[in-house]
């Protein structure tokens, strides 16, 4: 199905509940710290987000004014997915609390785990799709009437298909969505609720990206590679690629979009199309 395609992704941050590191990605979700914002917490947030690329998530979205253009059947499936994720996180938090374990967010994987030599810059991942796409807008989607749980839905528009599998469903001009837990909302009761924490490297509205996507079941994808190309040059935008560039082993870093597309297509042509 073209159009509203949900993407669950991994950014390289370990959440409070270790489960989330494998299921949905850094969500800026702090179950035990989900409260109405106040002046003191707003100041702390502003300081912590000073250099975070997801500081746009501090901008509150008014639920009464936000619109959802996703087909109800697809929205119900996405909500069900996130309900399961949120509940599993609560279950793990409760179990850890019962065992006297205090969960704390980690800053990311170790350098050893992310060592560039172990992870190809352009991996030959079976059935992956490579695109140039722009982050055009976003919405906050609540999944319960108490506004205890909600997620951010980022909307991307495909500018160029670089390569996709024979059964690929995307085309230039199509829209796809990236979902991640948390965000900031204004409820119908005019409460501002924040479920987010700083993420140093993250996609930003109105930026354009070079992405590798892997198709998942039920018209979902996972973002497995990301570079910012908003200034028409390839800029590393994930921890692994920033490290690769700093070590002088990155091929894509600094390339024009045209040259990067040519290079990726050349590298991928060495692998059979699946």
Mean pLDDT equals 80
Beta content comes to 25-35%
| Count of the separate structural domains | 1
Structural class designation: alpha+beta
Summarize the structure.
The protein is of the alpha+beta class and 274 residues long.
How is this structure best described in words?
The strands form two sheets. A six-stranded mixed barrel has the order 1-6-5-4-9-10. Strands 2-8-7-3 form a four-stranded mixed beta sheet, with no helix packed on it. The protein starts with 5 loop residues before the first strand and ends in a 6-residue tail after the last helix. It contains five helices and eleven strands; from the N terminus they run E-H-E-H-E-H-E-E-E-E-E-E-E-E-H-H. The protein has one domain. It is an alpha+beta fold. A hairpin with a 7-residue loop joins strand 4 (about 130-140) and strand 5 (about 150-165).
């Amino acid at each position: 199905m073209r159009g509203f395609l949900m993407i669950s992704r991994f950014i390289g941050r370990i959440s409070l509940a270790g489960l989330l590191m494998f299921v949905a990605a850094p969500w800026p979700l702090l179950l035990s710290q989900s409260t109405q914002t106040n002046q003191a917490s707003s100041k702390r947030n502003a300081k912590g987000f000073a250099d975070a690329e997801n500081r746009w998530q501090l901008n509150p979205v008014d639920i009464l004014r936000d619109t959802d253009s996703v087909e109800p059947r697809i929205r119900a499936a996405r909500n069900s997915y996130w309900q399961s994720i949120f509940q599993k996180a609560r279950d793990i938090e409760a179990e850890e609390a019962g065992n006297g374990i205090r969960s704390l967010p980690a800053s990311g994987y170790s350098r050893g785990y992310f060592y560039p030599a172990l992870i190809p810059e352009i991996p030959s991942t079976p059935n992956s799709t490579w695109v140039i796409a722009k982050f055009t807008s976003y919405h906050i989607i609540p999944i319960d009437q108490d506004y205890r749980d909600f997620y951010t839905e980022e909307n991307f528009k495909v500018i160029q298909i670089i390569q996709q599998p024979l059964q690929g469903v995307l085309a230039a001009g199509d829209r796809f969505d990236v979902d991640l837990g948390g965000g900031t909302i204004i409820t119908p009761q005019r409460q501002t609720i924040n479920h987010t924490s700083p993420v140093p490297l993250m996609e930003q509205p109105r930026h354009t990206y070079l992405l590798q996507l892997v198709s998942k079941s039920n018209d979902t994808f996972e973002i497995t590679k990301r570079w910012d190309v908003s200034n028409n040059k390839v800029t590393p935008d994930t921890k692994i690629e920033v490290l690769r560039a700093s070590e002088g082993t990155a091929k894509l870093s600094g390339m024009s979009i045209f040259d990067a597309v040519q290079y990726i297509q050349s590298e991928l042509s060495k692998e059979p199309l699946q």
